[in-house]
Amino acid sequence: FGSSSTHNNHDFLECLTVQLQSSNSATDAIYSPSNATYASLLLTQNLRPGSTTPNKPLLIFTPFYDHEIRAAIHCSKKLGLQIRVRSGGHDYEGLSSTSRNNPFVVVDLRNLRTVTISADEKTAWVQVGATLGQLYHTLAQKSRTLAFTAGVCPTVGVGGHFSGGGYGMMSRKHAIAADNVVDAKVMNADGKIFDRRSMGEDLFWAIRGGGGTSFGIVLAFKVNLVTVPETVTVFNVTRTSEQNATQLVHRWQYIADKVDENLLLRLFLRSVTSPVTGNRTVIASFTTLYLGGVHDLLPLMKQQFPELGLVEKDCTEMSWIESILFFAGLQNQPLDILLNRTTPSTVFFKGKSDYVTEPIPVDGLQGIWRFLHEEAENRAELQFSPYGGVLSSFSESETPFPHRSGNIFMIHYGVMWDSQGNQEAEKHVSWMRRLYGYMAAYVSKSPRAAYFNYRDLDLGINNSGNTSYEQASVWGLKYFKNNFKRLVRVKTKVDPTNFFRNEQSVPSLYSS
Ligand code: FDA
């Protein structure tokens, strides 16, 4: 930290302390770099080094109450500092904890994490600092058949996940998390709090897929819960190249978005060394949730995907909450493990996404395998997440999340590595960029669509000051298609001075 940062740091601390003391709030939730807790609070899910090493926050603040968040906004504005809001800290580019631009403070909402369920109304108010695991755990305490449709990783935070989309194993039946939001509480740059009625439908539309980060600080979401059967069925069937994986993956593309919507067959692809040949082989894992019992699932699979050769012993019946543990790789663990909110990562990671509207031909798939073999075993992974089902029944403009009818599946690309240093990072990131280049022929075009929750700064980046509509469109149209224009209009209305901004926030036309 340079001397001006030290200056800012001190001024912010003083301002916030005065504000908190005037409302009789404790001041021990403010962590500066000299505090031992600061380093552990800074650890996030994704370590992302690179040639442009991002800045760390001047301070991390973990408020308990709304008025404390308001105080942080007040001081940030007064001192010209940026705020980065963090709920679960899983941003793919670390934008909730780091910045490439101006001095900033982190407001970490981990202490706002109450989940209030109304079983009669089948709704829940969920504060943004709750994790998905905590939400699922609270639901399981209430009932075996009350559930929610959102992502697979239990440590993901509600604030970023719901506001940016939220795809999970029930999305073909119950859509994404954002589609099930029915109310919200949002604080604006003046510290005022709005609910759905007082914020108006434009802002309420924007925070259901357009990301909260550009528009204000979301404090809580009210969601419609979903009903699941007492018994669901899961399986994870794997096939290597020698076991016909390529043909199966090819065939999967013709059924994945069309099968019964109670069935979600997700596909994970990695490269491993074959124990039989000693050569590298692709391993395809068909990881599946069926909302029903095995005796309904088997005839369905026989009819819709007989090539997989699924048999009863591949399948396990369980409750929905047990399936949450299964897909998180936590099977047979006590339910309370879902309450662990952090598993700070020790590996470095880069992710990207694509949408597929036409099946990829066999030779196209074989080209992907060649890329996977270039990386170390198990370190690179592609996920193919099927769409269709109820996701197709929404129009592209119903929420900012535009990936609806016409998409067969979404691709998630991920690569991990262990060693520090720019050289190592460059090696893996450039591998991914080459793969992404290769994939251009096989994925959506004009725009080449991407999923906002798999944030990717390669798609484009804002200026450190103001950014024009044209410049931001480069990445904005990819995430939001034609909804980007409306997001810019909403932003211009609710945050004209562009107080809430980051490297990929929606620009305000007044400030450009
Ligand atoms: P974080 O706190 O980092 O926030 C992400 C962004 O939202 C930041 O820009 C932040 O400023 C902003 N933000 C956060 N809280 C806010 C608030 N209250 N108000 C306003 N802005 C706020 N996705 C998916 O759809 N399905 C899945 O299964 C998974 N699985 C998964 C696993 C793992 C290991 C990771 C790292 C990520 C995923 N994701 C995912 C992606 C995930 O949905 C995405 O990273 C979310 O934005 C994470 O939300 P957090 O609150 O945890 O992140």
Overview features:
five-stranded antiparallel sheet; Vanillyl-alcohol Oxidase, Chain A, domain 3; Uridine Diphospho-n-acetylenolpyruvylglucosamine Reductase, domain 2; binds dihydroflavine-adenine dinucleotide; globular; Uridine Diphospho-n-acetylenolpyruvylglucosamine Reductase, domain 3; 20% strand; 512 residues; seven-stranded antiparallel sheet; 14 helices
Radius of gyration from the CA trace?
23 Å
Binned, the helix content reads: 25-40%
In terms of per-residue confidence, which ranges show pLDDT below 50 for 5 or more consecutive residues? none
How many strands appear in the DSSP assignment?
18
Report the end-to-end length measured between terminal Cα atoms. Answer: 30 Å
Cofactor: FAD
Family: Belongs to the oxygen-dependent FAD-linked oxidoreductase family.
Pfam families: BBE (PF08031), FAD_binding_4 (PF01565)
Keywords: Alkaloid metabolism, FAD, Flavoprotein, Glycoprotein, Oxidoreductase, Signal
